[in-house]
Amino acid sequence: MIYVDGVLFPYENSSSSLSSSSQGSSLLLDVMTHPVIISASDSFKNLEEQRVTESCSRKDRYVYIFQREYAVVNPALVDFVGMDEATTCVGLVIRNRRSGVTSIAHMDSPEVVDLGISQMLSLVMEDDSDAAELDVVHMVGGYEDVDLKNATGGDDYAKPEGYSFPLCCKLVESLQKRREKIHIQTLFILGHNTKLDAQGNTCPIFNGFLVNTSTGTIVPASFNRSSRCPDELVRRIRVSASFDDPSWKGKLLDTYDTKTDRFIIAPCSWTMRLVEYVWELNQLPDEEILVNCSTSPSAEGPDFIDNERRIWKYLLKYPEWSKTFPKRQPRVFERTANGSWNFVF
């Protein structure tokens, strides 16, 4: 159940004449235009983006998640949790107001939303038998990668093309169907998170965020390469490999262990077909890589192509997934006294 400003948000039930996808579109647009949500978006837009570097993550205890990953963190063990690199993806934050336990996910497809939210909530609600109030629910990311007005053809409930809008619809619709009381605080998505670049292309205002686990406050954020850790390349590879690994169908990728404050990076297999495809992609010029490998070619960051080529170099060097995940066991990292991560096994 979705609440805005402490009030249960109206929603047409399944007996409505609108289709399920149209109901999701209607609900999303109604919530986005709520005065409280508009005010929260304006406030978020005016915040200064925080730049997270390795030196920051050594001073405080951070957890960073990549695309299609999620993490549930305990404020007693983790100071900040965050993500970035979202263009058509959306970052979701769900926080238990009683315990402060915070769950975040980097959602990249409607197909992982239903199971993904259940994964996120499994530990957030574990010690809360009353299934109480899930305060501080935020969505940040996604932008108007299509012209919604033209795409709907004048019909408010039509389903436009693009990537951001269908994902945002699915997220809000799935949260509405949950039994928990979900209080939406921030919905910095789509039009709220859209600007024009120098060439007149739409792009996101912010691509990431950082959550203070003690206070629950959220600020726009970006991370440099050294702070996107541990095991950056392997975790990036899992995003592509998980599409062909049936064990991850419809799920977010397990990455972090809440109780031990360790990264336990669950195994993921890949096929020689992926390796062969990567070899072909690696022959392409940079501009074709953008078109072939991104859902938002004009909105990607300056290191997108370099990141892709580093991933491909790893896969070409280690074409057999069992070299990365021997006996299909996870890769485990422990936090050291100075804030870095140590590979255990």
From TrEMBL:
Pfam families in UniProt: N_Asn_amidohyd
Gene Ontology biological process terms, A to Z: ubiquitin-dependent protein catabolic process
GO CC terms in record: nucleus
A GO MF label: protein-N-terminal asparagine amidohydrolase activity
Name this protein carries in UniProt: Protein N-terminal asparagine amidohydrolase
Taxonomic source organism: Brassica campestris
